[in-house]
Amino acid sequence: MNKKIFIFFPDGVGLRNFAFTQFKELGEERGNQIVYWNNTVFSLKEELGYDEVIIENHKIHRLTPIYTRIRKHIELNVSRQKFNDTVYATYKFPFSYNGLKNSLISIFSKLMIGFNSSEAGIIRVRNRINALERSTDKYKYCKAQLLEHKPDLVFCTTQRATQSIGALLAAQDIGIPTVGFVYSWDNVPKAMHLIETDYYCVWSDLMKEEVLKYYPFIKESQVIVTGTPQFEPHFDSGLSQSRADFCAENNLDPTKKYICYSGDDETTSPLDQFYLEDLAVAVRNLNAKGENLAIIYRKCPVDTTTRYDLVLEKYKDCIAVLNPLWKPFGKNWNEILPTKADLKALYNVCQHSELVTNVCSSTVFDFVLHNKPCVYYNYEQPQFKKGIRDIGQNYNYVHFRSMPTPEAAVFCTDKKELENQIKQILEGKLSNVSEGKKWFEIVASEAPTEASKNIWNTIGTILKQ
């Protein structure tokens, strides 16, 4: 085919899917020239030896973050009205009135939201955002790069980054086809769709239905179901380590059965450390009754808090810390980026754990692909008080309505039941694996090993048109 494809990273979330998998190699096998259009602090040239064009101008319009937040609130208001469903209000974050500047921004935002909470209002705000970004030096900078390098197509690795808006507008304005990838399973109902591309690659039929439902300006022919490369590494047996090697590398006891505790970010689960403590108490109790268990604590990669430290120290007899192999490339949370080595690390944590426990994480899918159950915590902690997020609201979100049955995860609704549920899972009497795999197929497609290939098929078809 001999086409030049720009793989656009507006931020680092797409690295795992499109730099560390076989995605690049599959594209090159078809005769494409793959160039990474890189807006991140991660150097693909230095780290992986890949061709890249670096976007050094990161300055979006100063009003864009304000208007994108306004757009999100309007879209959620419209969804609430259109579908008569209060869940959409729970996706909103409160406005800040801390200081004069924040107060003025919040008052302006609420006025704009009030005047534009309609389908027509969404269009007005979208057009305003696009006009703001077209006025920036970044837009001109990206346009100049595109004119210099002349890619045949730009593939954007996430739909939710404000950094992508001006660059994609520049591509469209000079007639370069653009394709956007919807990054995460929960993004569409949460109004996290900021980019406008010529085509969209989505995980599943469910996600396609959602895109068309929430974004009526997108036509069905623009949305292509491809799957996601996110789960492809779980089917790569070359990543597998023996039990002995895995335990030796991570200073674990090969005679113990390990339960993975997958940590959450502070926004989703502000009292997450206390669920880890509940698990540690259950493990100690079971060990006192003759079991030989321990916990692998794998934190949320972008969690830089110290909130788990006291629990990790108190229960160090039964908790082993295996941090994700992500690297900080800057001081901000969004500059903590994945590494290729973490694909292998996650594969083997799944393979050598008996089960995973967490608060509403998509790791349920990582583990069921290794035939391992998942326990979701769904009870409040005694430390809960006004002003702390209720974790129960997570399970009311739209993306959890995709569960084929309530048995697609094991829900722990009372910490007094946790010990018994773990024992039942270890004895093979309780599992969500069968239903969890059905859920995975609904969310992430029935052919999870074909996603990268499907995306390249889509790109090839677009280039022929």
CATH topology of the largest domain: Rossmann fold
- The assigned structural class equals alpha/beta
β-strand amount: 5-15%
User: Overall mean pLDDT score?
Assistant: 95
Largest beta sheet: strand ordering: 3-2-1-4-5-6-7
Radius of gyration: 23 Å
The overall number of domains is 3
Could you characterize the architecture of this molecule?
The protein is α/β, with parallel strands linked by helices and 465 residues long. The protein has 3 domains: 167 residues, Glycogen Phosphorylase B (Rossmann fold), CATH 3.40.50; 63 residues, no CATH class; 211 residues, Glycogen Phosphorylase B (Rossmann fold). It contains 17 helices and 15 strands. Strands 3-2-1-4-5-6-7 form a 7-stranded parallel beta sheet, sandwiched between helices. The protein has a 6-stranded parallel beta sheet with strand order 10-9-8-13-14-15, with helices on both faces. The protein is globular. The two termini are 13 Å apart. The model has no long low-confidence stretch (mean pLDDT 95).
